[in-house]
Write a structure and sequence with these properties.
The protein has six helices and four strands, in the order ααβααββαβα. The protein is an alpha+beta fold. It has one domain.
Length: about 130
């Protein structure tokens, strides 16, 4: 819901210097449903970029940042504070349930940077 999970944000902040020196790609699982544009004709994937992308993008300079459609199981326990809060609202009942992830798009994106990495000289591995 317009934010990254707290653990992901803290991880990037904690390892900012190391990540800035490495090839990094960021993604977020975002909207649910099948609509690719909202009522005003705006791209929903663009609209749902986590607010943290601006901060971490400036500090670690990722090669790409993407939002992909997500999944929603109303029977699953909520993840993160936003989902816990949403679970308490009547609006949750109107949310579309299902897996809306576009696996070919996700795999294509991953393949694109796997190819980039394969063609670059290796940098010494450093454990986070």
């Amino acid at each position: 819901m317009f934010h990254w999970l707290k653990d992901a944000t803290q991880f990037v902040r904690r390892h900012r210097k190391l990540l800035a020196d490495r090839p990094v790609w960021l993604f977020s699982s975002g909207p649910i449903g099948t609509d690719t544009v909202d009522k005003e004709g705006r791209d929903v994937l663009e609209l749902t970029k986590p607010r943290e992308f601006a901060e971490v993008g400036a500090s670690i300079r990722p090669r790409d940042m993407r939002v992909f459609f997500g999944a929603f199981d109303p029977e699953a326990p909520p993840v993160g504070i936003a989902e816990r809060m949403m679970a308490l609202t009547p609006a949750r009942k109107g949310m579309p349930a299902g897996d809306f992830r576009d696996w070919p798009a996700i795999e294509g994106w991953a393949d694109s940077f796997a190819g980039q990495l394969a063609s670059e000289p290796r940098v010494g591995a450093t454990a986070l």
